Amino acid sequence: MPSFFTDDTSSIPEIESPADVIDAAPAESTTKRPVGDRGAGDAAVNVVVVDPDDITRNHLLTQLGDDVSSFPSAEELVPFLNGEPVVMILGPSCAVDGSLAAVEQVLCKHREIGAILVAEELTTNLLQQALRSGVKDVLAAPADDQQLAEAISRVTPGLSASSSAPPEDDPLLSGDGDLAHVITVFSTKGGAGKSVIATNLGVVLAQRSDKPVCLVDADLQFGDIAVMLKLAPQHTIVDAVSSLDRLDASLLQSLLITHESSGLMILPAPLEPAFADQIGAAEMVQIIEVLKRFCSYVIVDTPAYFNDVVLGIIEASDDVLLVAGMDIPNIKNVKIGLQTLRLLNTPMEKLRLILNRANSKVKLDVSEVERTLQVSADVLIPSDIIVPQSVNRGVPLVQTAKRSGVAKAIGEIADIFAADAAPAKRGWR
Ligand SMILES: Nc1ncnc2c1ncn2[C@@H]1O[C@H](COP(=O)(O)OP(=O)(O)OP(=O)(O)O)[C@@H](O)[C@H]1O
Ligand SMILES: [Mg+2]
Fold this sequence. Notes:
The chain is α/β, with parallel strands linked by helices. The protein folds into 2 domains: 9-165, Response regulator (Rossmann fold, 3-Layer(aba) Sandwich), CATH 3.40.50.2300; 181-416, P-loop containing nucleotide triphosphate hydrolases (Rossmann fold), CATH 3.40.50.300. Helix content is 36%, strand content 15%. It has helices at residues 18-23, 54-64, 74-77, 99-109, 124-132, 145-155, 194-208, 225-228, 237-242, 249-255, 281-294, 308-316, 328-343, 366-373, 386-393, 397-400, 405-416; strands at 46-50, 68-71, 86-90, 113-119, 137-140, 181-186, 213-217, 257-259, 264-267, 297-301, 319-324, 351-356, 379-381. β3 (86-90), α4 and β4 (113-119) form a beta-alpha-beta unit. The longest helix has 16 residues, at 328-343. The chain starts with 17 loop residues before the first helix and ends in a 13-residue tail after the last helix. Residues 194-195, 219, 224, 301 line the site of magnesium ion.
């Protein structure tokens, strides 16, 4: 019987097999609160705590509840694995002085372990190191009970039941094997309404779809999707790029933040504009490819200019919503944008024109705009004060003003992408 299994060996139950160790409750004297609110689906997963420091280990055990075992190091857990999925909570001491290298060795050989690191100081450097070592989620210490429970819930679905499971056995890839439909929202004019449309379209599609729907904020310098949904992300697209060499569906899912009331998942833009430089077109496309494997729809919000990242995204997209406002500079820019896309051989069938603020009394009517752009608009979105109001409240208007003209127009966009929708006849000339 290993003395490291708990800190009080006097009351350890007799252990016959490795499975017993994983299943056995640690004989830790502190009163524990079961992690019952982790969600019924995850209640069965085995959770272990790893930290060389007794006090830290006990503290985490106290938070996690009765069914949790503890070990001073990841290597010492290995003999007790029985092939069942295990969530391993690494305490802060596991992040110091090369300890993550040892963790990486264990994680490489045991795909059934999903590791979550609770780190004293959450620096970008540490985050990158942890993700490269195979850790699936990183929380800042002290992590409260709910943060731990949520991280366990995020990591659990991606765990395979056997150490030798090949990547295609990833449970997140189960289902029909269909790849997601990728929809990019683009405009050559700032403030045209891209982010409002991307966010609300994402919410509608998430509500309609059984499979996950992900909104990627690819406005890498000034992305504001998280703010529009009143979310405070722990991870961003930068973390996905840092772990690109081992990015699979489950790791990527652990980096997404969920908009709880709709189920929409978001891959947020970097928190600082300077990080945008770390993300190139190839990285962005690789991330989209992984998302396609477990989502039904991937929606991508973009900045208001062409660069290689935006062109890469447009090429990887099935559809591009070209958003135009109802003023002359807007229409001029969209026309130039269209010419650029033509020169780049973008298939015109991908493009759909969305006219935003289309009821404005601005002495420019829709038919004039359509004539100038030589295309008919797919959807007209009216101008409405509820749009900035909902942006400022951080609540999507498709949830609060379902009967508004704007919400109906967003619904019309979603209808275009319904699984049983007839292929649209395009009017681009
Ligand atoms: N239909 C509308 N009616 C009224 N206001 C709108 C409408 N669409 C967008 N807006 C407002 O216009 C502003 C810009 O919208 P949004 O942020 O979606 O544009 P964007 O194209 O993403 O801008 P950027 O290029 O800066 O990212 C927001 O304050 C939003 O509330
Ligand atoms: Mg925007």
